[in-house]
Fold this protein.
Amino acid sequence: MSKADKKAAKRQAQETEASAAEKAGAASKQMKRAIVYLAKESPGIFPLALLQAVMEAAYPYIGILLSAGILTELADPGRSMSHLFRMALLLVGLNFLGRRMMDFGGQLLDVLQYTVLKHIERAVAEKAWKMDYAMSADPRINETKQRITRWHYGRGVLALVGQVRGVFQALVTIGISIALVAEFFRAKAVGEDRTAALLNHWAVSVLFLVLLSFSIIYSIYTSFRIQKYYFKTNETSEKPINRMMYLMDSCFSKYRNGKDIRMFHAKKQISGKLRALGGEYLREIEPAFRYERRKTFYSILISRCFDLLVYLFVGAKAIFGAFGVGSILKYTGMVTQLGDGVTRLCDTVRDFLQNLEYVEVYFRYLDMPNATAEGTLPVTQEIRDNYEFEFRNVTFAYPGAPGPSLSGISCRFRKGEKIAIVGRNGSGKTTFIKLLCRLCDPQEGEILLNGVDIRKYQYQEYLSFFSTVFQDYQIFDFKLGENVAAESEYDGERVKEALENAGFGERLSTLADGLDTQLFKRFSEDGVELSGGESQKVAIARCLYKDAPYVVLDEPTAALDPVAEADIYQRMNRFTRDKGAIYISHRLSSCHFCHRILVFEEGRIAEQGSHEELLAAKGLYRRLWDAQAQYYA
Ligand code: ADP
């Protein structure tokens, strides 16, 4: 190796060392954070886990020590029956009491863990609501979210409770076992012959300890290798499992999806996809199974051979009078316990180290910036009374998308102005209103409200500026009134008025429980199922109830019959008289009344103007208009 090569190798080694140290530092920070997080959420969780660990470690020794005592007494010609009886009673009593206490402690710990788990799930969901809407649609982020919620007790922050308990239990087990091993070595074989001398020879004891260590180390090494192998395959093997869960959830637990599944005989297709995903999972995990089978074979073989040696050694010492027959049980038991304790310690430390990555993923997810929540300016009454929006050369691409969905958008609209947006599917209409409502932020350009970038306004106040009906609006499995008001305490009269203005008045009069009617069946067997049109009217009522300064309607009447549609547009027009409004509609006839129409094409504003101006321009709008007009003709 040349001098330069040596230098380069040294530098690389230093860098690796530094990055490993950095990693370890970051990991220990996250671990501290996780422990503080758990202790804060449930102050009793660690004390209880430690108590449980001590009980679990001590429990096997009750059986071992008392059984050994009973055997020794039995083998003694001068045995006392009452002493024997007392010991048997103590054995049964302590066994019973110990088991009951452990069961009780275990159940209590489960309850505490469950409470923390619910908190973790809530934190994950809240984060999803807080983060930038476009980010929440990012498949990679969704994958992370699904992984975190699927780990539950096994991995991540909550797994730390089990790991702390495991380490502590292992340490107590090892402590007790070492005390007994020392006692075993102190017990000397009696007699003058060579076998007794051999059994008492220090070299035999050292050999015994070496073999014990070898057996334990080999089993730990095997388990490490196996876990490492599993860990390597985790990310790829978890993917099909997560997808299976998603498919099962969307296909089997959502009543509304049942129609399409039946009508298009999709059952076969879904079963096929589930089978394929199951197959993919098995293919990913099979090498790890094979690897585990191969590795554990040798580890078990070595361990059983060592057990045989233990029985021979302990038995021989007993034959040569080192201790009574009962102690055979004690010392063979102690060796097994020692092995178990060391293995558990190493397994738990290994799990702990591997779990660091999961803990980090969890906090990394929670620490993602809430891009939309940065602004500080209030949206004052003055702005609400008189406002103007401006899109200035705005470009936006969804995360992970190959190209922008909107490019170079510039336009202005103000209070009192009704804007219609038309254009072909996928031309960027919905994306435009998502940007306006700050569900997503543009990568280039600015959106201004009264000359100020909308990112500078307080996010919640800015959101309250809009009443919306989205194309894919969501009606929740709540009561009717709660759905309209979007809160549990509401003004019943205003909710009724909103429902009437949304064309739901007649249907409301048929509902025995009125605004208290539970919607859909998930929360109540008596829940009411709404038709598509009725759901849309409830969504419109919610928009009316909010009564915000600006109204955004994305295909608000797609599911309504023509009479209801005409009626809603008239009412909407009255409702938005003093407000600004944007309507997205495919029925161009309903855009007539708007002051201005923006025609979108491939993420750009291709034309804009009044209905008459656009017809006269004989461009895209004219073509769309003529295409629809021929059906009416
Ligand atoms: P429109 O409302 O005009 O039908 P959209 O604004 O919904 O169109 O979509 C514009 C483009 O952006 C389409 O090409 C669509 O595929 C894409 N798009 C919409 N939503 C997402 C998303 N969450 N992730 C990636 N691409 C998206």
Notes: The two ends are 88 Å apart (CA to CA). The mean pLDDT is 86. Residues 266-319 form the longest helix (54 residues).
